[in-house]
Every structure is written in structure tokens, then in C-alpha cells.
Write a structure and sequence with these properties.
Layout lengths: L2 H6 L8 H10 L12 H11 L1 H21 L5 E8 L3 E4 L5 E4 L5 E8 L7 H67 L5 H36 L2
Antiparallel strand pairs: 1-4, 2-3
Length: 230
């Protein structure tokens, strides 16, 4: 994850110390692969695409805007008004002439209003907006940490289940060769039907375990897609 992206994740507020430590620790897992992505790539993509986390981030930023609006209650209000136009006066007679009188009449007025005392509304409004912003950032940090944990958990679940499928596929391959060997021994009179039946039972158990592992992998990939977005 680039430094610029990590700095922008929290918006206006600082990131929590716990989350920063977690991200630093996850840098050591960067070589891991799942769907041809590193864990850091998955986190980076999830931060930019997950709608729930984006909504919490927008709420925190909106709360920051409330502070600016509350602070505006102590600032002066300046009003500027202006007008302008052209007045033409024509005279007709033996000698006709036309002239422009006062060709560019203009007027400009500026009014500034500075609130002095508003019964405490400005002060307490600012305090309320600040408290609301802190609460929004606290909710966002909590959602961010939970989201990070979910991304890491689903990423590692996919890696675990992919490895489980690989192991079980290899196990089925070995069991199939054992069945073929048992059949070959029986064909030359060195084995029994019991040996073949036992080999077939082990192969059936291996196939069942492989099917369960593949189903679990599909579940883990679905959870990964829900958080990461692909």
C-alpha cells in the first residue's frame, strides 16, 4: 500500500495506533499470494472499493465540516451590493443633438456584521460539533479496524483452503495409485479382493474429503470477494 493511500484513508483524523501497528506487521506478509495478489494489495483494493467503509469515512468527513460551520458563527458576515447603468437624454428641434448625461452611474455599498454575543449558541454549537466529529471518527476507526481484521482473516482463509485442496488432491492421486497397485497384485495372484475393497474405500473417503475442501474454498473465496471486491 502506498504511503499516499495510507495517509488518505482516515480523512481528516489520525489513524489509530493499533491499526498502524497492524499494518506495519502485515508488511511482513507481503510475499503471500491469493488470487495473484499480495495481502497489502488486497487491503489497498478493499479500502478503495468497500462501500460500508467508504460510507463511514464520508460520515467522519461530514462531521469535520460541521466543525467548520460551527466556527463560522464567530466570523463576521460581509454583504456587498452594487448597481450601475447608462442614462441618455435626447433633444429635438431645429438643431437636433443627442448627448449622454451621467454615462455610468454606479453605487456600491458594503456592510459587515460582527456577532458579539449570541447567548452562548456559538460556543456550545462549536463544542457540540467537535464532540460529534470525535464520535464519528471513533466509529470510523472501530469500523476500520474490524474491516482490516476481516480482510486479513478472509485472505488467510483462502490461502488455507487452497492449500487444503492441493493436499487433498495429492492424497486422492496417491490413493488412486494404491488402488491400481492393489488391482495389479490381484491380477497376478498376489493380492485379495479385500485389499481392493479397502483401497476403493480409502479412495472414496479421499474424494469426499476433496469435495468438502473445494466447497469450503468456494465459501472462503466468496467472503474474500465480499470484503475485497474481486
Amino acid at each position: 500500500m502506498s504511503g499516499k493511500r495510507r495517509a488518505s484513508l482516515m480523512g481528516a483524523g489520525p489513524r489509530s495506533w493499533t491499526l498502524g501497528v497492524a499494518l506495519a506487521a502485515l508488511m511482513h506478509l507481503a510475499p503471500c499470494q491469493a488470487h495473484a495478489e499480495t495481502l497489502i494489495d488486497a487491503i489497498d483494493l478493499a479500502y478503495t472499493t468497500n462501500p460500508a467503509l467508504r460510507a463511514e469515512r464520508d460520515r467522519a468527513r461530514a462531521a469535520d465540516e460541521g466543525i467548520a460551520q460551527a466556527r463560522g458563527g464567530v466570523l463576521p458576515t460581509v454583504t456587498v451590493q452594487g448597481s450601475g447603468g447608462i442614462s441618455q437624454n435626447e433633444r429635438f428641434g431645429r438643431a437636433t443633438s443627442a448627448g449622454i448625461t451621467n454615462p455610468d452611474p454606479e453605487s456600491v455599498s458594503i456592510q459587515a456584521v460582527q456577532p458579539i454575543f449570541r447567548g452562548g449558541r456559538t460556543f456550545y454549537g462549536f463544542q457540540q460539533a467537535t464532540a460529534a466529529a470525535r464520535a464519528a471518527h471513533a466509529v470510523y476507526r472501530s469500523a476500520e479496524q474490524q474491516f482490516l481484521l476481516s480482510v486479513v482473516s478472509t485472505y488467510m482463509d483462502v490461502r488455507r483452503d487452497e492449500e487444503s485442496v492441493r493436499i487433498r488432491e495429492n492424497n486422492v492421486s496417491v490413493l488412486r495409485r494404491q488402488l491400481e497397485a492393489a488391482q495389479a497384485r490381484f491380477d497376478v495372484g498376489e493380492g485379495t479382493k479385500t485389499d481392493i475393497a479397502q483401497a476403493e474405500a480409502r479412495l472414496s473417503g479421499g474424494d469426499a474429503g476433496l469435495s468438502l475442501a473445494r466447497a469450503q474454498l468456494d465459501v472462503s473465496r466468496s467472503a474474500y470477494e465480499r470484503f475485497v471486491g474481486q
